[in-house]
Amino acid sequence: MAVELGSFGVWSRAGLWEAEGDAAAELEELGYGALWLGGSPGGDLDAVTAVLRTTRALTVATGIVNVWAEPAERLSATFRRIDAEHPGRFLVGVGASHPEAVSEYVKPYDKLVGYLDELDVPDDRRVLAALGPRVLKLAADRTAGAHPYLVTPEHTATARELLGAGKLLAPEQHVVLETDPVAARALARKSIELYLGLRNYTGNWLRLGYEEADLADGGSDRLVDALVAWGSPEQVAARLRAHLDAGADHVAVQVVTPDGGHDREAFRELAKELF
């Protein structure tokens, strides 16, 4: 890899961290190696630049830029500008979003191939959002690796087999720091509610052995517990390490909060167990 990620990073929607100048810097001091900015950021990626300017060595990655919404030519120019100012600290994550959100969503695999053809970013500085076998293989062939979202350690093991050795595998993991099962599952269920209606995700879970019944009524406890790591900091840290044991190089940690904001104290507590 041309960029350094470390074993653990943070996944958060763009717009939450750059408003607090010391927040991303604290993540770096705690030991997290990367900040993944989600929510389909596009345009000039001001959020990426803002975080890079307030940190010293933290890698910033997009998780992910939507290929249907952001022209490859513009993203290429943005990459060159950011990399010139902060060499080796920006990783471009791109993906095809999901069909329910894109009216012209036709042949996403072909769209990804064409986009990668046009994207003037070195292969070792770009990753692909990938869940299924075909896109995982594309990630292995055309990028530094894969950034799967809302997956389990079992998926990570399968993804590693498909990617092969030497390719980056950086799954995202939802976490809830709550030991009460009722409260933890309520928050976890709310965090995955949207994805239960998106066939890219549901298809992936069905491939992993879950059943249609697991997708009903907000998701079964079995599915919720598999997708969202909840419990004490020690219990959550164990789940995060399970991805590494299954073949991941890096895990992007998304702390779920009731209001969708970021919880700095939660990352402090997790850091005590992870580093």
Short summary:
By secondary structure, this protein is α/β, with parallel strands linked by helices. It contains 12 helices and 11 strands. It has one domain (8-274): Luciferase-like domain (TIM Barrel, Alpha-Beta Barrel), CATH 3.20.20.
Number of helices: 12
General shape: globular
CATH superfamily: Luciferase-like domain
Q: Architecture, CATH level 2?
A: Alpha-Beta Barrel
Q: What's the CATH topology name? A: TIM Barrel
Mean pLDDT: 94
Report on the biggest sheet.
9 strands, parallel
The CATH first-level class comes to: Alpha Beta
User: What is the N-to-C order of secondary-structure elements (H for helix, E for strand)?
Assistant: EHEHEEHEHEHEHEEHHHHEHEH
The total tally of domains equals: 1
Structural class: alpha/beta
Distance between the termini: 21 Å
Q: Helical amount among residues, as a percent range? A: 40-55%
Counted beta strands: 11
Using the CA coordinates, give the radius of gyration. Answer: 17 Å
Low-confidence segments, given as residue ranges, are: none
What share of the residues does DSSP label as strand, in percent? 15-25%
